[in-house]
Specification:
By secondary structure, the protein is of the alpha+beta class. The protein is built from 5 helices and 7 strands; from the N terminus they run βαααβββαβαββ. It has one domain: 3-Layer(aba) Sandwich (Aminopeptidase), CATH 3.40.630. The relative contact order is 0.17.
């Protein structure tokens, strides 16, 4: 079983970059082509700068090794949410989103936004997020579809 969510720390950066890469290469084949997976995974090289700019959370195994992570940047946007394939479907993503929502409410942020992939969209929807619009973009010269989503954090939402 996993330990509670904790703040992302500098010593976690190598592990979360690998989680990102493994999640993209090991969990997306049913929804993305090999070219899409490769282009997406190559984005791991830009991750370190993002990790220093935002506020992150991790869920760890009993040895305090990260298994899933999220990043909020800027303060009203879920920029990253990834779980290692071996730890998926165990509630990590939900726990991370709940931590972001709790922190955002404490900071009086009324609404969160994100760009959800085909693989993460169902989780966001299950937790009350709504699609604002669908968009297409290019990553590494390859076309992708994703969803701009939002969630109101006020009372009763």
């Amino acid at each position: 079983m996993f330990r509670p969510v904790r703040c992302l720390q500098g010593q976690d950066h190598d592990a979360v970059v690998e989680i990102y890469r493994q999640a993209v290469l090991g969990s997306t084949a049913a929804l993305y082509s090999a070219a899409q997976q490769q282009a997406w995974a190559e984005q791991c090289h830009t991750l370190r700068l993002q990790l220093h700019q935002g506020e992150g959370f991790v869920v760890c195994d009993p040895h305090d090794q990260p298994q899933a992570f999220s990043l909020r940047h800027p303060s009203d946007r879920v920029a990253l949410l990834y779980c290692h394939p071996a730890a998926q479907r165990q509630g990590c993503g939900q726990r991370l989103l709940e931590a972001i929502e709790q922190r955002s409410r404490a900071q009086a942020i009324a609404m969160l936004r994100t760009e959800a992939s085909l693989i993460s969209k169902p989780l966001f929807e299950r937790l009350g997020w709504q699609v604002s619009w669908r968009e297409e973009l290019r990553i590494g010269g390859v076309n992708f579809k994703r969803f701009r989503m939002h969630k109101l954090l006020g009372q009763g939402y």
